[in-house]
Amino acid sequence: MTVIALDTSSETTARRLAVFALALGGFGTGTAEFASMGLLPEIASGFGISEPAAGHAISAYALGVVVGAPVLTALSARVPRKTLLVALMTVFTVGNLATALAPSYALPVVARFICGLPHGAFFGVAALVAAHVMGPGQQAKAVANVMAGQTVATVVGVPVASWLGQTLGWRCAFALVVAVGVATLAAIWRWMPDLRSMQITSVLTELGALTRVQVWLALVVGMVGFGGMFAVYTYISTTLTDVAGLPRTFVPVALVVFGLGMVVGNLVGGQLAYRSVMRALYLSMGAQAVVLAIFVVASHRTYTALPVLFLIGATSAAFTPALQTRLMDVAADARTLAGALTHCALNIGNAAGAWLGGLVIAAGYGYTAPAAVGAMLATASLIVLTASVFVPD
């Protein structure tokens, strides 16, 4: 009996370390993605350009995810999962190194595109690997565990990167991401099993997901819904300083508040998705529509802006496990691509939200206008979600 207990304990530890390696990768990608938004004023100032122009680097990252998620996932369908995870994280790390060393603005835009290419594929593979490692019936929780790395990044990685960017220059923030990328590679190499028992699909099987109407509807729900949050978050630094009156040095603290909301939202969203995926989607996106509308008014005072910012983070993070589980459910055999497409949708929302938020700001409506746009996008995603209920599989 003692031997069995020791074996079980050892196996459990090995599983946790494997999932931790995947979550660490999520921490790195989350830090890279969100830190660039918090450092938008510093990046713009460093290259002598406007904030909306600097936002093109954010859009380039999102475009990289949109292109890379389906293409890399499909083309790598027969590559061993551990080898693929190492390759994807290597590209991500090298891309961030190029960003940190870029001498002119054109190169960071290209480098951010390269960084985005492996993002969706990594999360798609990581979600399935985590589910495989954790065992049957743990799909929603496995997805939440992998996404936990990204949400923790908003509490620790993004504020630290923001602080580094403000005090030592924005390039130091991306140097931090490079260090996390190297640590992730070491963790995957050391702790991830060979995964030879995982099912290997084919290019045609994975691309078959794109022939399913429910997959496209779920993607639209994600694209529109995530766009609401990113319309606000892309310009959150200036909103908090110029509208709410928060001192610039306290912006990292505000990012911690947002990150704590994401951590709580991810935990709650994972539990909600475990019980009912559709209910979790309705609750999270409905709540986000409400809090984004409230932020239009709440953003004028620091003591009201920060609590609502926490809720924006919570509702957006609660939405992610449910959407990824929904996509994996409706994609049949193409579950790796489905997992990757979640982040494709997220980053289309990223690019669209940043663009729409920039449009209303440039039109002279001020930095509260993106929240109004976000509330409308969240409402539109609910309409699409409701329509999907009446569409046959």
UniProtKB/TrEMBL annotation:
GO function term, MF aspect, one: transmembrane transporter activity
Domain named Major facilitator superfamily (MFS) profile: residues: 18-393
Spans through the membrane: 56-77, 84-103, 109-130, 142-162, 168-192, 213-236, 248-268, 280-298, 304-323, 344-365, 371-391
InterPro entries: MFS, MFS_dom, MFS_Efflux_Transporters, MFS_trans_sf
Mode of membrane association: Multi-pass membrane protein
GO cellular component: plasma membrane
PROSITE patterns according to UniProt: MFS
UniProt keyword terms in alphabetical order: Cell membrane, Membrane, Transmembrane, Transmembrane helix
Subcellular localization, as worded in the UniProt entry: Cell membrane
PANTHER family xref list: CHLORAMPHENICOL EFFLUX PUMP RV0191 (PTHR43124:SF3), PURINE EFFLUX PUMP PBUE (PTHR43124)
Name the record gives this protein: MFS transporter
Organism: Mycolicibacterium hodleri
Lineage of origin: Bacteria, Bacillati, Actinomycetota, Actinomycetes, Mycobacteriales
